[in-house]
Design goal:
The protein has 98 residues and is mainly alpha-helical. The chain has three helices and no strands. The longest helix is centred in the N-terminal third of the chain and has 26 residues. The protein is elongated, with a radius of gyration of 17 Å.
Length: 98
């Protein structure tokens, strides 16, 4: 039972970060937003740290930044691999019934 809660917590952390990416992208469409406001600054610094990894390799296409799309797909792929890997590991250890 505790193993399933751990897996659920891991999956929820990924979902929260995906929502943070989505909110960050939506906020960039609002002109004149004050990015020095503490909540926006914390959101931007947390998300941009991850997105900058993709911005190095994916240049913008005109005014559009496609790096959040690729970053989202990579994050979903990592989430699935980690969650299924943890599920398999806990199953092998006998913490989850067959």
């Amino acid at each position: 039972m505790i193993a399933l809660k751990i897996i659920e917590a891991i999956a929820n952390c990924f979902y929260i970060f995906l929502i943070m990416i989505f909110v960050r992208c939506l906020l960039t469409w609002i002109p004149g937003i004050n990015w020095n406001f503490p909540i926006f600054k914390a959101l931007a610094s947390a998300v941009d740290l991850y997105l900058d990894l993709f911005r190095k390799f994916i240049p913008p296409v005109g005014p559009f930044d496609l790096s959040p799309i690729v970053a989202t797909f990579v994050l979903i792929f990592l989430r699935n691999g980690i969650v299924y890997g943890a599920f398999y590991l806990f199953m092998m250890l006998g913490l989850i019934g067959q």
